[in-house]
Fold:
Amino acid sequence: MRHRKRTVKLGRTSAHRNELLANLVCALIDNKRIKTTLPKARAARGLADKMVTLGKKNTLAARRQAISTLKQVDSVKELFDSVAPTFSDRPGGYTRIIKLGRRISDSSEMVYLEWV
Structure:
């Protein structure tokens, strides 16, 4: 049974998966929209929402926690200065997934992951 098994492993080790998701979220913060596969977007959506929630707190502890997760100081600064304040009155659901269809080479489901 699959009860309470929420981690999508994406065929990677835990360290590789954490770095992949951190890089996806940093790219989302910097570019406002990224094109990726559906499983990666669904996995990155949770981390992106958690980072926006930290950004809304706007404390030094929250900033340090975001830096330790994302590992890119410039992206965290952008998150706290411009992205998180736009969601100050929104209780959650900061990202949107738009399906694009299948990739020709390997038939993977491609999506846009973007801010709401």
